[in-house]
Write a structure and sequence with these properties.
Elements: E1 2-5, H1 9-20, E2 30-41, E3 44-52, E4 63-64, E5 67-69, H2 84-91, H3 95-113, E6 123-129, E7 138-146, E8 160-166, H4 168-176, H5 184-194, H6 199-204, E9 211-212, E10 215-218, E11 224-228
Parallel strand pairs: 2-7, 6-9
Antiparallel strand pairs: 1-11, 2-3, 2-5, 3-4, 3-8, 6-7, 10-11
Helix pairs in contact: 2-3
Length: 231
Amino acid sequence: MSRRPVRDPDLLARAEEWLRAGAADVSSPRPAATVMLVRDGDAGPEAYVQRRVATMAFAPSMLVFPGGRVDPADHHLDPATPGLADLAAHMGVAPRAAAPFAAAAVREVHEECGVLLSVEGLRGRGHWVTPAFEPRRYDTWILAAAMPENQHARETSGESDGGGWVHPADVLARADAGEVRMMPPQVWALEALASFADVAAFLAHRPRIVRVDPVLERDPDGTLVLRTDLP
């Protein structure tokens, strides 16, 4: 179990307002997928992140991985697509249930940073749900994939205004210092990446995946924390 104080000012304000209103308004999470695009750097594995523009309704100005919600067309991916059965088995679902998330992951990465992935290249990493106090909530599968050779990641959607390749330890230190903003799933995923010597070892690892549904709690000293039961 992990307990992290809610430090981001915007998140804290929304959490406090939700509690003052009685914590009764909870929206249903929308299905989504996000991808940790990774490559080997001089100091170890690196991940590609994007800073969402300040005008976005969800996670404005946050560093995120490319991704987004599942669209109706994503449900048309053939369950027999190469690589999907293995990914679904790791996710703990049937190939037909995994298909829309895999399709959304490939589509979103191409739309947001111009990189074309294959379903065969996707690996499962986690499954997180946005906390109940957020007005926009997502039920998100976190996947990972190696940066394909001879391709270049860049902002292509207009939804971000910064970002690039980061070393996990460096960006986590910047987040602790308040220089950049990240949500708990991105922090957790980058902490995991930082423990591997190279991308091959990271992608070969098959972590136990469980649905993580953060719970907002208040400590005796008044601090708001998010409790997450991590695998």
